[in-house]
Design a protein that fits this description.
The complex is a heterodimer of chains A (284) and B (269).
Chain A lengths: L1 H39 L2 E2 L2 E2 L2 H8 L1 H31 L6 H12 L2 H11 L6 H8 L11 H14 L2 H12 L3 H9 L4 H30 L2 H8 L10 H11 L3 H29 L1
Antiparallel strand pairs in A: 1-2
Chain B lengths: L6 H25 L19 H8 L3 H31 L3 H15 L7 H10 L7 H4 L8 H12 L3 H9 L4 H9 L4 H16 L3 H6 L8 H11 L4 H26 L8
Helix pairs in contact in B: 1-13, 2-13, 3-7, 3-9, 3-10, 3-12, 4-7, 7-10, 8-9, 10-13, 12-13
Classes of the chains: A mainly alpha (284), B mainly alpha (269).
């Protein structure tokens, strides 16, 4: 043990050397920009100021995009996380390699390409989806015209791109020792019993972490379709937070307001992730 | 082991595979049509029309944009994978309190919204002369691309018995040798996953070129797709052809990577 400790201390500098590109790079490109941006929220014309928070509270645009984003993540995140979880469990057998490939395929399509494909699929006049709906005697849906339908379209487009969570959960599932399942099988536990008592509790921390990340990833994913195909419309219904921040930052040049919005978003993200993480560990 | 698949699982797998393939297949079909074609495969059609693919490449310097995108991934993906795996291997070798703090750092930085760093990165790239160069798109690879990649490697190594690395350390193998000879070979699925996810990140990167690149000669393929949309947004087959072109390299990379990561030890044998 003592020997081990000396060795660790001896090795610390070299391993820190190999850590440093990631550590320094992330500090420079992520932590430093984040801190500066958050700091700007308190920066007015003459020093410290909370004015940006007042503007944020009064801005209709901010309120609308917060509401849109909230509705979007409440629909998209459960679909993506639980969908990825279900598919990771379903497609674990080695022989199902082709099905795993198929599930991952929509995720690797570059976002603007996926947005253009979506724009065509959902076109209300000649898109395949409405033609199939009408062909089977159902009324067509006014995608891209009706506000709710357009938001739903964004959720569906995001639902297909769940590949990242799929991979992370495949890894997570593989970290559960097989002997736990073998023991449960010997005790006569069925598929549901093994899921209920082994897979679910042991995967909860993974699901919590993934949910936290997916709040971010799915919301960020709305930027490209809302920038390329709807530009926030119709009637601001697809003005989600990333597009709002882009407009505030690069069109309106209102960095204090951007910072105030981001402060709200980031603290919510960290808070929700911590709560989920705590909840998951408490269950375990 | 050669486990038998139940009929229920197999039919569900086929159902979901078809569901996820459908939009991709439809897009390829749509790209082979002509303006005004009825979109659904029910409609009769003379035959595939490859003209759209030729037109895409004759429009808006698409060849140049594709080359730029390829340059970004050729430099960015290996660099990000290299940095992320080195960092993760170093984390696995840290003593406990350090290790926990590094993991917390990775998780928190993984949760930072990209939109929170746009403004300052813009300023930063302006200061170091990377603004309006492809360097602005490749530079994040020096930081490992995304902390998620570091975590994926860390998780993969955490399932390997520690004795394996301990033995190499006692033999006095230096860090880089341990990483390359002992560490990397046992986590090939993680490497494949990180290559794939970082490829997705760099190849599909749309926001950053919008923010940081102004010279049309330095635009990347995702910007090209938006340009096509702005030039003639009613020409669906042409837009779909552009989308399919942007998809092809990703599918090829995926075809190679999935041999490792979807058949490795993460799946049920």
């Amino acid at each position: 043990m003592k020997n081990n400790q000396t060795r660790n201390r001896f090795q610390l500098p070299t391993s820190l050397l190999f850590l440093s590109p990631w550590l320094v790079g992330t500090c420079l490109l992520v932590v430093f920009p984040l801190l500066v941006t958050l700091g700007l929220a308190f920066w007015g014309d003459d020093g410290f100021s909370m004015a940006a928070f007042g503007r944020m509270a009064q801005s209709d645009l901010v309120r609308i995009s917060l509401a849109n984003s909230l509705i979007f993540v409440l629909l998209a995140v459960p679909v993506r996380v639980l969908g990825a979880f279900f598919l990771a469990l379903l497609l674990r057998p080695k022989k199902l390699a082709l099905a795993r490939t198929a599930v991952f395929l929509p995720t690797i399509i570059p976002p603007p390409a996926w947005a253009l494909i979506g724009l065509w699929l959902f076109n209300p006049l000649f898109g395949p989806i409405n033609l199939v709906l009408q062909g089977s005697g159902l009324p067509g849906v006014n995608w891209l015209v009706d506000e709710t339908a357009t938001q739903l379209m964004f959720v569906i487009l995001a639902g297909f791109q769940l590949g990242e969570g799929f991979i992370v959960l495949l890894i997570g599932r593989s970290l559960i020792p097989e002997h736990l399942f073998d023991a449960a099988r010997l005790d006569g536990a069925g598929l549901w019993g093994r899921f209920r008592h082994i897979t679910w509790p042991l995967m909860l921390p993974w699901l919590a972490l993934l949910t936290g990340r997916d709040l971010l990833v799915s919301l960020q994913g709305t930027f490209t379709p809302s920038f390329v195909i709807t530009y926030g419309g119709p009637y601001y219904s697809t003005t989600f937070l990333p597009l709002l921040i882009y407009e505030l930052a690069f069109d309106f040049r209102d960095s204090a307001l951007v910072a105030a919005v981001l402060l709200l978003v980031f603290s919510t993200l960290i808070g929700v992730s911590l709560l989920l993480w705590q909840g998951a560990l408490a269950r375990e | 082991m050669n486990k038998q698949l139940s009929a229920g699982r197999l039919s569900l797998a086929i159902f979901f595979a078809c569901a996820f393939l459908l939009p991709v297949v439809l897009a390829v079909w749509g790209s082979l049509g002509q303006v005004g074609d009825v979109a659904v495969p029910l409609a009769g059609r003379a035959g595939p029309d490859w003209q759209n693919y030729r037109t895409v490449f004759q429009t808006a310097q698409m060849v140049q944009l594709t080359a730029n995108s390829l340059l970004v991934v050729i430099l960015g993906v290996p660099l990000a994978t290299f940095v992320a795996s080195l960092a993760a291997f170093a984390i696995t070798e840290q003593p406990q309190p350090t290790k926990r703090w590094l993991l917390i750092f990775a998780i928190i930085t993984m949760l930072v919204p990209p939109s929170a760093v746009w403004l300052v990165r813009f300023w930063l790239f302006e200061q170091i002369g990377l603004l309006d160069t492809l360097g602005a798109l490749i530079f994040p690879a020096l930081a490992g691309g995304n902390s998620l990649f570091v975590l994926i490697y860390y998780w993969a190594w955490s399932r390997i018995p520690a004795e394996l690395f301990e033995a190499a350390r006692i033999d006095g193998a230096p860090f880089l040798t341990r990483w390359w000879r002992v560490g990397l070979p046992v986590v090939r699925p993680a490497t494949a996953a990180v290559v794939l996810l970082s490829f997705t990140l760099f190849w599909g990167n749309f926001i950053e070129p919008v923010l940081f690149i102004y010279d049309p000669n330095k635009y990347t393929l995702p910007i090209g797709l938006q340009l096509l949309n702005q030039l003639d947004s009613s020409n669906r087959p042409l837009l779909l052809a552009g989308a399919v072109i942007a998809m092809i390299p990703a599918v090829l990379v995926f075809g190679v990577a999935q041999r490792w990561f979807l058949r490795g030890e993460w799946v049920d044998g």
